[in-house]
């Protein structure tokens, strides 16, 4: 016998509720008290479900189940409120708009704070509403479009009236960004690479090289055919490797042939590589065939080396800095010109590497082949060439090896050091280029180390206009001179020094000119501080110099660290302060490694 049938509550997760949610909901006549309305009862009792067909009671009994309120405490499809509830004033919904579903309506009604406040005052208007959806939109003060899922903030802004103020995140950010963009300056940083100098001009065609055959006498038919051929046919002999079989077996190295090969080093890589290979093999063959200390190695003169650089595009043998070339023409022409410049950059780097390798061999094999003055001129010529704009990002290993060897070949080193430093300090007018020139000399030999320190100190004095006032050349006076230069490196002093050259007339240009001046001051101070670090690192810190280095640390904190004001809009000051902190740390490490003299301990004991 079947038991009594129990009433089953319709829960929202039952499958048969899917069809029920699509049926329309009819409002009952409001004949009784307004507190009897189901919407108002649901708002007063949030634990009771509102306007859901699936939650209707199973029987028509007036008694309500006691556990009914605890069954459906929270809806299973609860989701966070839409962002549009922040809108303060948005036009009302238009008539005829579709009403949302009952579940979405109940969720918005429970979450919106205005519903519980305005329902009692708005109940008189319930009779004129066509649907429960219009009731909710009228009470909430929003429109269906504003709460439609997926609608962006820009759509809400566009749909609002002219007097509508939308308190959205994008709108607040736009208000904050507008005055900042009006007065802000673009961020400026300290360049990691020096600007360079335009030394070599681009060449679209190589300089013609003619082999002088007036002093050459052929010894076999193959050599006679080579000497009697046209310049283009002679290049074919070189490309096919025939000249190696002509001159290497007999050990003959005509000077005119070697000069011709040296000039061919300035041609494109397919020719310069062949010319360098033959020139290198002929030179090494002469070294292996030498007897009784007689070196059969040809070394080009300074004039021949200068002519080679001239063939690479230098306008004068002295390699003075030139102005950059301005390309004109159509866009297609500019694109083709850029491609040619890229190829010429590779060719220029290859040619200079070949020349430096061959000169290094000559400097090693014949240290006395050049006079001291020729060595100084050759070093200056090579350093100016190393500052070329197209060579800034390329390694200069061969050039640095050659410079080290040329320094070792100078006979009167102490006397020529000052002359060399004075010549190199005038190689450029830009402080970063001079710093890059100092860094061309590696800190691996005593002479190179001494040149780096002395040249750095001279460049600092020249940039600060103190080269005639300091004892730069006195022995063990470098740290004392650096202390005086460090006091002139404070940003305020550099700003006064550079101010007349940077500030622009006109009140409207003052903020921009001031920002540019700050960047130039920071940029110059960064180079000066780097040079100061080179000066200290090239010194042998002895106990008698401990006090001078300690004074340098104090000067660095006093004039640089405490004078820098960092700002998010000026990251270059942060870069300078980081360099100052790193420099101070290195100097403190040097102080820790050196024991001061006893007089410093007595001084501190007296204090």
Describe, in plain words, how this protein is organized in 3D.
With 607 residues, the protein is an all-alpha fold. It has 26 helices and no strands.
* Biggest sheet statistics: none
| Share of helical residues | 40-55%
**What is the global morphology?**
globular
What portion of the residues fall into strands of 2 or more residues? under 5%
The count of DSSP E runs of length 2 or more, i.e. the number of strands, is: 0
Low-confidence stretches: 1-35, 42-74, 85-91, 113-163, 321-334
Descriptive tags:
globular, disordered N terminus, about 600 residues, mainly alpha
Topology:
Elements: H1 17-20, H2 38-44, H3 68-71, H4 102-111, H5 113-122, H6 132-140, H7 153-159, H8 169-183, H9 221-227, H10 231-239, H11 242-247, H12 255-264, H13 269-288, H14 302-311, H15 331-365, H16 372-386, H17 397-408, H18 413-424, H19 431-439, H20 446-463, H21 478-487, H22 491-502, H23 510-537, H24 546-559, H25 571-593, H26 598-606
In short:
It contains 26 helices and no strands. The chain has helices at 17-20, 38-44, 68-71, 102-111, 113-122, 132-140, 153-159, 169-183, 221-227, 231-239, 242-247, 255-264, 269-288, 302-311, 331-365, 372-386, 397-408, 413-424, 431-439, 446-463, 478-487, 491-502, 510-537, 546-559, 571-593, 598-606. Mean pLDDT is 75; it is low at 1-35, 42-74, 85-91, 113-163 and 321-334.
């Amino acid at each position: 016998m079947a038991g009594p049938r129990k009433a089953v509550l319709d829960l929202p997760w039952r499958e048969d509720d899917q069809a029920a949610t699509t049926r329309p909901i009819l409002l009952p006549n409001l004949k009784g008290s307004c507190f009897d309305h189901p919407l108002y009862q649901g708002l007063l009792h949030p634990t009771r479900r509102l306007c859901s067909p699936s939650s209707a009671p199973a029987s028509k009994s007036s008694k309500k189940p006691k556990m009914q309120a605890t069954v459906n405490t929270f809806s299973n499809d609860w989701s966070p409120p839409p962002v549009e509830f922040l809108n303060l004033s948005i036009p009302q919904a238009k008539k005829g708009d579709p009403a949302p579903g009952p579940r979405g309506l109940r969720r918005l009604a429970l979450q919106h704070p205005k519903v519980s406040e305005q329902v009692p005052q708005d109940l008189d208007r319930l009779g004129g509403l066509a649907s429960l959806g219009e009731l909710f939109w009228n009470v909430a003060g929003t429109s269906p479009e504003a709460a439609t899922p997926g609608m962006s903030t820009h759509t809400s802004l566009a749909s609002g009236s002219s007097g509508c103020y939308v308190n959205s995140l994008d709108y607040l950010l736009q208000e904050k960004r507008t005055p900042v963009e009006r007065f802000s300056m673009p961020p400026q940083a300290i360049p990691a690479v020096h600007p360079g100098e335009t030394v070599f001009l681009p060449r679209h065609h190589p300089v013609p090289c003619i082999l002088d055959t007036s002093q050459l006498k052929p010894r076999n038919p193959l050599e006679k055919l080579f000497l009697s051929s046209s310049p283009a046919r002679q290049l074919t002999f070189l490309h096919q490797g025939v000249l190696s079989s002509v001159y290497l077996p007999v050990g003959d190295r005509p000077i005119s042939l070697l000069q011709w090969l040296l000039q061919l080093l300035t041609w494109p890589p397919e020719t310069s590589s062949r010319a360098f290979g033959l020139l290198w093999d002929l030179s090494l063959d002469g070294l292996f065939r030498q007897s009784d200390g007689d070196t059969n190695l040809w070394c080009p003169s300074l004039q021949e080396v200068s002519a080679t650089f001239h063939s690479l595009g230098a306008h004068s043998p002295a390699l003075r800095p030139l102005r950059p070339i301005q390309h004109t023409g159509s866009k297609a022409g500019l694109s083709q010109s850029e491609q040619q410049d890229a190829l010429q950059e590779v060719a220029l780097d290859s040619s200079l590497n070949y020349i430096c390798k061959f000169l290094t061999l000559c400097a090693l094999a014949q240290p006395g082949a050049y006079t001291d003055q020729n060595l100084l001129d050759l070093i200056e010529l090579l350093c100016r060439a190393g500052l070329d704009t197209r060579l800034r990002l390329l390694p200069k290993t061969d050039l640095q090896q050659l410079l080290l060897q040329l320094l070792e070949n100078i006979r009167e080193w102490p006397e020529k050091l000052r002359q060399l430093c004075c010549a190199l300090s005038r190689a450029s007018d830009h402080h970063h280029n001079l710093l890059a020139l100092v860094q061309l000399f590696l800190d691996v030999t005593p002479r190179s180390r001494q040149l780096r320190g002395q040249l750095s100190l001279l460049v600092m004095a020249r940039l600060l206009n103190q080269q005639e006032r300091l004892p730069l050349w006195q022995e063990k006076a470098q740290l004392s001179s650096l202390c005086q230069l460090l006091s002139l490196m404070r940003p305020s002093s550099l700003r006064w020094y550079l101010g007349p050259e940077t500030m622009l007339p006109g009140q409207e240009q003052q903020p921009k000119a001031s920002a540019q001046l700050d960047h130039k001051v920071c940029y110059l101070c960064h180079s000066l501080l780097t040079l100061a670090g080179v000066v200290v690192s090239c010194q042998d810190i002895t106990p008698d110099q401990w006090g001078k280095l300690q004074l340098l640390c104090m000067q660095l904190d006093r004039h640089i660290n405490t004078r820098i004001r960092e700002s998010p809009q000026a990251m270059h000051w942060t870069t300078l302060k980081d360099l100052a902190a790193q420099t101070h740390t290195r100097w403190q490490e040097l102080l820790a490694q050196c024991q001061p003299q006893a007089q410093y301990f007595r001084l501190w004991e007296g204090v």
